[in-house]
Amino acid sequence: KNEVEQSPQNLTAQEGEFITINCSYSVGISALHWLQQHPGGGIVSLFMLSSGKKKHGRLIATINIQEKHSSLHITASHPRDSAVYICAGNFGNEKLTFGTGTRLTIIP
Amino acid sequence: EPEVTQTPSHQVTQMGQEVILRCVPISNHLYFYWYRQILGQKVEFLVSFYNNEISEKSEIFDDQFSVERPDGSNFTLKIRSTKLEDSAMYFCASSELESSYNEQFFGPGTRLTVL
Q1: Size of interface A-B (CB pairs under 8 A)
Q2: Per-residue model confidence as pLDDT tens for chain A (108 residues)
Q3: Would you call B100 and A90 a contact, using CB atoms and an 8 Å cutoff?
């Protein structure tokens, strides 16, 4: 069964802290996506990766194929980073299988 | 920047009524998707659509659901006879290529409330 699991479910941190959100997945993934869901509900794609590391501004996503694990890092976190971060995978087809999300709250 | 749009943003309907949720994908995209998110739960795949036909559907997507691309720009999700448990946020998404190789762009969602 294709599965994506995230941890932690909730994360609260002070502004400026380095944030790490973890995602593990079952065998057979072809691509992994990190998404951001705003408080209003809208979903934005942050990264899609199948190997290595990608960086966009203060966001970094890594994936370790052997360990079936991906991480999303946020450097110099800011209250505007507060959102739900979702890990999702393609398992050999086009549909996405979603994790439960990590609710991140950054306190000023 | 091109974006996926969805209408309406919120739809309230009575149980048993038909609803049509509308989406306008990004114009050069070829793959279209519907997902739903029941309040407090994770996002779930409903259906994918390519070349004017369904390419994959989940077990949720039963005979009460249908999708259509009526005019080359709109992509619709119809629920024939709504149930209370259909209350959810429905997201449309599109991708230029098969999404194993490309990111999916999501619309802002339609919140469906079935009374």
Answers
A1: 67
A2: 889 999 999 999 999 999 999 999 998 888 999 999 988 788 999 999 999 999 999 999 999 999 999 999 999 999 999 999 999 999 887 889 999 999 999 999
A3: yes
Chain B residues whose CB is inside 8 A of the A90 CB are 99-100
- Chain B contacts to A (CB-CB under 8 A): 31, 33, 35, 37, 42-45, 48, 50, 55-56, 58, 89, 91, 95, 98-106, 108-109, 111
pLDDT band at B99 (very low <50, low <70, confident <90, very high): low
Task: Name which of A25, A13, A2, A1 is nearest A107 in CA terms.
Answer: A13
Q: What are phi and psi of B62, to 5 degrees?
A: -90, -165
